[in-house]
What we know:
Low-confidence stretches: 5-10
Distance between the termini: 51 Å
Helix content: 40-55%
Largest sheet: 4 strands, antiparallel
Structural class: alpha+beta
Radius of gyration: 16 Å
Number of helices: 6
Number of domains: 2
Mean pLDDT: 88
Amino acid sequence: MSRLSLVKSSQPAELLSQLNSGQLLVVDSRRRNGLIIYKRYHAEFAGPGAAVGGFFDVGTQRTIPVGDLALIAPEKYEQRQKAYSIRRHWIRLTEQLTENPVPLQRAKMLLAQFEHYFDADTVDSLPDDALANLVGVLPSTIRMVRRPKAVKQRQLVSVG
């Protein structure tokens, strides 16, 4: 695969244009990175190794890089097929979280998954609405799940 330059969050218009053009790219599988892709009524997460762009993401309205995002252009048919398979895997993982009928539980499970994979600063930097759109909850539900952690940290600081 040919390596593209890092896609920094300072270039969101260029990334959005690439995704909507139908060009197929792959999230670098050698990094802890990914991309939250806003569709019309929901968002999807494409993690390491996943295909982005192509037929998957025509109509993307906004993106949020997660971690130190790097995208690669697949050169071979096998690389593209593997990337499609990995993208379906990430979609299925998110779908499993949404099967829980309790919104607060969906939010907790999503945050736990992201905190397991990414460092706390990366997860804390993600907007509430981006996370909420991944599992079909309100941004206020994400804030409710995040709040106890922030309250606990403030209590520790005031005690110490």
